[in-house]
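Hi there, hope your week has been kind to you so far. Please have a think about how the structure follows from the sequence. I've dropped the whole record in just underneath, so have a look:

_____
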Amino acid sequence: MLGPQMWASMRQGLSRGLSRNAKGKKIDIAGIYPPITTPFTATAEVDYGKLEENLNKLSAFPFRGAVGGICGLANVLGAQVCQLERLCLTGQWEAAQTLQHRLIEPNTAVTRRFGIPGLKKTMDWFGYYGGPCRAPLQELSPTEEEALRLDFSNNGWL
């Protein structure tokens, strides 16, 4: 469950990320992405009415132009990433949430945590050709490789 600080951070990220284009130029998103409010009271209790309102607003995003994503993980778990989309499109929210939770840690590993070297290593593990890293990138150290392996094995992918 999202806490007040996590919600505020997510809301801030949405407003910053969606209000600027790739070059950092401000764009008008009024009427495209609806404003969202925190679903928490001053005492950090959940206001379920606001939460439901926000979820209804957020569920409209795919129909207002928010499509796709940056899916580095799809290079190694492509079928699973596509399955997540199918589950969402067919309204199978519990199954989608379960799958999403299993994909979060590996996705973070091949994007933010270990980046391209991590993605290349996992591609090799899954039978694809990741290849060597080009300068200035370095191959993963044995310690990093083990941590990456744990991110995938702890979630049932290796």
